[in-house]
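Throughout our pipeline, every protein is held as a single compact record rather than as scattered files. This encoding replaces a full spatial description with a residue-level series of whole-number codes. The remainder of this section carries one protein's record, kept here as part of the documentation.
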Amino acid sequence: GYWYFGPMQWMVGLDHPGDIICIGPKYQYPYSQADGANTHLTTAGYEMLGEKYAQVYFDKVVLGQNWQPLQPISVDVNANVINVHFHVPTPPLQWVDDSVLPPPQQAVAEWVNGKGFEVSAAGPAATIDSVQIVGDDTVQITCSPSTSFGGISSVGYAFTANATAMPNGTYRWGQLSDSDVLVGATSQTTQANHAVSFQVPLPSWTAPGSP
């Protein structure tokens, strides 16, 4: 089994593959500061979101392809190292430039090196020493050597709200994307697919419906 307290759109997409389609997150788009809560996108942000919807609609409905977002499909642990394996729409995985999208994790200092990834070991936050992309579809998270995963442990991504919002953005975000080179017809902006927000249990997890 699995547990997940966050974005329900992603979870129901896992439970009903092909019937309910999660396009992906929207934390990568620009947010309006006018409402004071960083809740709504700017006009340009909604244009970009619409372009992503159109891309996925074309792939799924017109071409009949099996669209899935950039999402985890399994997790495994080797000592203090966590391997998160992803479905990647357009390989390989890549990091978004630090100068564009740095998740500071001000509220949880242990995750400052996580690029949006979060690890809890038997409840408390675990210190992330480093994260790196391995191959086309895996992120390897190295925690402090003393870390052990028992009790209620988890790995997540863009799940915990930061103390302050990203400039012109929202409170939850990360730096992982694929290599999609879609350029929106209206925005004229390149739009890679960004990883969904998630939290799954450790020491191992496999997405529902996976072999």
The first strand starts at residue 71 and ends at 78. The radius of gyration is 17 Å.
